[in-house]
Write a structure and sequence with these properties.
The protein is an alpha/beta fold. About 35% of the residues lie in helices and about 20% in strands. A hairpin with a 4-residue loop joins strand 16 and strand 17.
């Protein structure tokens, strides 16, 4: 597999062969200079070459493959020309939003999300009207293929995003079946945070002549402080609580290796007064969606998650990452801690290590500049307060399909002058629902404003998420 030559830092998007429409979208998105993964991969991607890219979450890889697939779309042909496969619905929704943002200057371009966890009826109707870009999970995409609802004769680009997690989740057969039904003339792009043997084998099946690009997370090393605590007698939940009370982060993700541990720790933190939520595969899809929204908008300060469930969660600033026991492999450990210390900000990664983690720690130590110093857990403190969020999330029973926009929600909440912009946090509008974060002491008045008046001539119901 040929390797690309490294590019220098601080390269401009203006150096690329991109249309004026795409360059305008890049500028409006606030992208000033290319990230390392964009600078190294985009020249190859834009040439139409098959490419395998190893890069961590937050590296800018989504924009890289989004620009590549958009650059060669023909909006006059209303048929699937690009397919992006993702391991989870959450990541698929995030990728679809990123593609739409970069394509907004391209008239009549349609991006359709095809994922499980939602009824297929609406997706079937949308497919009948056609779409240029499909973003979905392997199971649901294959289901539509098997029922002859999708036809790939015009497909130009196939993207496998977070390919390692798709294999971890058991999607090997589905991926093979989908790839077989795509044209051999397609461009194949495979993106993965880690690169185990199974990914090497998958890349060979998808394309035997792909260019390989590896973007190491070297830039993170100087901005992330790693601390290792030893615990054996203390329970997982009690150890996590001690760390949170000691460091008092603005927000934190706690990674667990099992769904059972994830839920147990979240329940314990919640009962202790922390604004905490669980995120794992045993939850209903709506509960997972709500947890992602609440953590992203600051209505929850602690998210207790499994590695797979946390894929698709994009938090620009994260103070603390806690690993309850070492991750299953070193690449996953690196991926976990890489969620903090982004964009040059300092981050902290704490690993709670038990006796069973000794071998993994020795392997990790071989990759570090200095030996790991195991510390005793911090002593309990009586004056430290639980992490409580300042905001609470309200969910409205309307969204994009009701022509609802963030500005409409702001207008409804500020119409009587009692609430100001300082009382309103992040707003997220989905197809059928909208979410708005409001200051905790403003919740009752916000609910009254929404329920007792109309927004754009329509009445919407709202309720507080717990």
């Amino acid at each position: 597999m040929p390797e690309s030559t490294p590019s220098s830092d601080n390269e401009s998007f203006l150096q690329l062969e991109l249309s004026d429409a795409l360059l305008q979208s890049v500028k409006e998105a606030g992208f000033e200079q290319m990230t390392q993964v964009q600078a190294r991969s985009l020249p190859t991607l834009l040439k139409g070459e098959d490419t395998v890219v190893q890069a961590a979450t937050g590296s800018g890889k989504t924009a890289a493959f989004a620009l590549a697939l958009l650059a060669k779309l023909d909006v006059t042909h209303f048929s699937p020309q690009a397919l992006v496969l993702c391991p989870t619905r959450e990541l698929a929704e995030q990728v679809a939003e990123a593609i739409r943002a970069l394509a907004k200057a391209m008239a009549n371009l349609k991006v359709l999300t095809l994922c499980g966890g939602v009824p297929a009826r609406a997706q079937i109707a949308s497919l009948e009207h056609g779409a240029h870009v499909l973003v979905g999970t392997p199971g649901r995409v294959l289901d539509h293929l098997n029922h002859k609802r999708i036809e790939f004769s015009q497909l130009q680009t196939l993207v496998l995003d977070e390919a390692d997690r798709m294999l971890d989740m058991g999607f090997q057969d589905e991926l093979n079946a989908i790839v077989e039904q795509t044209p051999k003339s397609r461009q194949s792009l495979l993106f993965s945070a880690t690169f185990p043997k199974s990914i090497a084998e998958l890349s060979q099946r998808v394309s035997k002549n792909a260019t390989s690009i590896k973007v190491a997370a070297v830039q993170q090393a100087n901005t992330i402080k790693q601390v290792f605590y030893q615990f054996s007698d203390t329970s997982d939940a009690a150890a996590v609580a001690l760390v949170l009370l000691t460091y008092q982060p603005s927000n934190a993700i706690v990674f667990c290796n099992t769904k059972v541990a994830c839920q147990a720790i979240a329940d314990r933190l919640l009962s202790s007064g922390h604004s905490a939520l669980a995120l794992h595969g045993d939850l209903e899809q709506k509960d997972r969606d709500q947890a992602m929204v609440q953590f992203a908008n600051g209505s929850a300060r602690v998210l207790v998650a499994t590695d797979v469930a946390a894929r698709g969660l994009d938090i620009a600033e994260l103070d603390l990452v806690i690993s309850v026991h070492m991750a299953h492999d070193l690449d996953t450990h690196t991926h976990r801690i890489g969620r903090t210390g982004r964009a040059g900000a300092e981050g902290l990664a704490v690993t709670l290590a038990g006796p069973q983690d000794d071998y993994k720690m020795r392997l990790l130590e071989d990759t570090l500049d200095a030996p790991i110093q195991l510390q005793e857990l911090p002593a309990a403190t009586t004056n430290a307060k639980p992490l409580v969020a300042d905001f609470v999330t309200l969910q409205l029973n309307g969204g994009k399909k009701n022509k609802l926009r963030p500005g409409d929600i702001v207008g409804a909440l500020t119409r009587d002058g009692k609430l100001t912009m300082a009382d309103i946090g992040k707003i997220k509008v989905q197809n059928n629902f909208a979410f708005v974060a409001v200051q905790r002491n403003a919740v009752r008045h916000a609910l009254t404003l929404i329920s007792n008046d109309k927004i754009k001539g329509k009445r919407f119901r709202a309720h507080k998420l717990s």
